[in-house]
Specification:
Elements: E1 3-7, H1 13-24, H2 30-36, E2 46-50, E3 58-70, E4 76-87, H3 96-110, E5 115-119, E6 132-133, E7 136-143, E8 159-161, H4 163-178, H5 189-197, E9 210-214, E10 217-224, E11 227-228, E12 231-232, E13 234-243, H6 246-257, E14 262-267, H7 276-279, E15 286-293, E16 295-299, H8 302-308, E17 315-322, E18 329-336, E19 339-344, E20 351-354, H9 355-361, H10 370-373, E21 377-379, H11 382-392
Parallel strand pairs: 4-5, 13-14, 17-20
Antiparallel strand pairs: 1-2, 2-3, 3-4, 5-16, 6-16, 7-14, 7-15, 8-9, 9-10, 10-13, 11-12, 17-18, 18-19, 20-21
Bound molecules: coenzyme A.
């Protein structure tokens, strides 16, 4: 089979939607495509066309969204967030994804992107292309009938507001929050517009979104009616959640746990270091029922990416990075809490590691040394490795906070 990779344009949207439908089971109406176009720029998408197909149909697609990513220390990096990756079921396991990924990586390097991020449909796909899982997502359940706060907040500044009023408030609060959290990505006005459409077809049988807003936090949730023999055990799903201060956190949860008629409150939105267990009379009531990889990081320009972040302790080390796509190289990293520099060097590496291992540790989540267990990192000096671990850890658990 011979094929061509080309950039997409607006007229390719039906073909892109068809590929996505065949992969993910989503039905796209014209309205859905229009909605998607609020945030999706077709020119940022790559298509694979089968040269043997007279109709020239697209058989694979990969696109990206432009994001600002907060890295440890608070700096923002402009990065592509890879998305809408799909190969037609008629053309799978013939190397099309590999070709697309290679093409995309080379394009990102030419565009001088420091790194790329993505969220994966399956955990086994992207490591081979140099992506490492850098954040995690967990699903939590708390049954409010059995959970209460140890101390009831003295006052409640939380308001239940209409979507139109909530829109600018939550956007401003989210923007403040995402600048303080490593791994967090921004949401453009268009992305907020898209989410506030709240189309009935996207509610999963639940209510329209409800908005609780505090000056420094918010909870957006849905309720699913569930009555049995005159007793309500309604479900509740938190779809978006930010609490910047202790007061906001305690007050929002006081309101959530006080919601009569609701039983379990589920969410994928609670960061791993969310302080809710510390507030509960019985911390065990917050159950983590699933934990998985969240956002993956692919370093492209190692010196720029490593110099952009801060390190928890002073560190000087030579990293020998193995990158089968963009080439192996050694980098001298000097960093600390105040700043960092990183440059190519001929010095002998202190540690040798795969580029995906460096991507996984980049946002300060998993320890760098974990990679050694999987054979992706070699070292000779245990104390230096320990110091690298400490240096790379961030002051907070990284969390991206926005699905894409
Ligand atoms: C996942 C998908 C994009 C792979 O496309 P493909 O063209 O069949 O993949 P390729 O033939 O280029 O395979 C490239 C490599 O990835 C591996 N691979 C492909 N799909 C994989 C999967 N689902 N899980 C693990 N490995 C996978 C192949 O074995 C191959 O490995 P190797 O070259 O290292 O030996 C395709 O199956 C698909 O569209 N799936 C449904 C939608 C989806 O999940 N998209 C990803 C969204 S994040």
């Amino acid at each position: 089979m011979t094929f061509t990779i080309r950039s997409a344009n607006l007229s390719d949207m039906p073909a892109i939607a068809l590929l996505d439908s065949a992969s993910f089971g989503i039905t796209y109406t014209e309205q859905d495509i229009e909605d998607a176009l609020l945030v999706l720029e077709p020119e940022r998408f790559l298509l694979v066309v089968d040269d043997t197909d007279a109709a020239g149909s697209a058989v694979a697609v990969a696109g990206d969204y432009p994001f600002d990513l907060t890295v440890p220390g608070g700096k923002q990096l402009a990065v592509p967030g890879v998305t809408w990756v799909s190969v037609s079921p008629t053309h799978r396991r013939r190397g099309l994804l590999r070709s697309l990924m290679e093409h995309q990586l080379r394009k990102y390097v030419a565009d001088e992107q420091p790194l790329a991020v993505l969220t994966a449909s399956e955990g086994g796909i992207y490591g081979r292309f140099g992506y490492g899982a850098a954040t995690q997502i967990r699903r939590t359940v708390i049954d409010r009938r059995f959970a209460q706060l140890r101390h009831r907040p003295a006052e409640i500044q939380v308001r239940l507001v209409e979507p139109a009023e909530a829109r600018p408030l939550v956007a401003e609060i989210h923007d403040r929050w995402r600048r303080t959290v490593p791994g967090a990505i921004n949401r453009t006005a268009a992305r907020w517009d898209r989410s506030f459409l709240d189309r009935p077809g996207e509610r999963g049988g639940m209510s329209a979104r409800l908005h609780l807003v505090h000056p420094d936090g918010y909870v957006i949730f849905r309720i699913r009616e569930d009555w049995v023999d005159g007793r309500a055990q309604n479900g509740c799903t938190i779809t978006d959640y930010v609490a910047l201060t202790r007061d906001a956190h305690a007050q929002l949860w006081q309101v959530m746990l006080g919601m009569d008629l609701v039983g379990p409150i589920e969410s994928n939105e609670l960061p791993l270091d969310d302080p809710l267990p510390q507030l509960l009379a019985d911390p065990r009531q917050l159950r983590t029922v699933a934990l998985r990889d969240g956002m993956w990081v692919r370093l492209l320009d190692v010196p720029t990416a490593l110099a952009a972040r801060r390190y928890e302790v002073e560190i000087e080390a030579v990293l020998g990075v193995h990158d089968p796509f963009l080439g192996d190289a050694n980098y001298l990293l000097r960093g600390g809490p105040e700043g960092a520099s990183c440059e190519r060097t001929d010095r002998t590496p202190d540690v040798r590691l795969a580029v995906q291992a460096l991507g996984a540790a980049y946002l300060g989540g998993p320890r760098l040394s974990f990679a050694a267990e999987g054979g992706q990192l070699e070292y000779s000096d245990q104390r230096l490795l320990r110091r690298l671990d400490l240096a790379f850890l961030a002051d907070r658990v990284p969390f991206h906070g926005t699905g894409f």
